[in-house]
Design brief:
The protein has one domain. About 55% of the residues lie in helices and about 5% in strands.
Length: about 130
Amino acid sequence: MKSLKWKLIAMYLGLVLLVMIVSGTYILLSLRNIEISKSRQELETYAKKINDQVITGGEEEYFQTELLRTVSNSIGIQGNILNAKGKTIASTTDLQPPYEDYKSSVIVAAMSGVASFSTGKRIQTLFG
């Protein structure tokens, strides 16, 4: 009789553990997707702000100064302005030339006119 009782307890605990793992995984993935979506929207907002305040009507020689002024209040936001050839012409990470060049698939897609977003360790987007 005791062995049947312990088998039932073990099966019940195993079932509870399995349900907790599955539901916990679902909750974590849902929260991750929500945070990615919020980050994407925030980056799009900053990209539009930078486009309006720095690029539109501005001259390329002042992009660096205007970019730093526009993004300086944005905690954790790093950005670059690239020209049509993909060369960085203004950056929030490097204060003066030479700037780092980016060759990721996100940048290549953005240069072809497709909005793109990466969820890797380093999120990159094109501001112009």
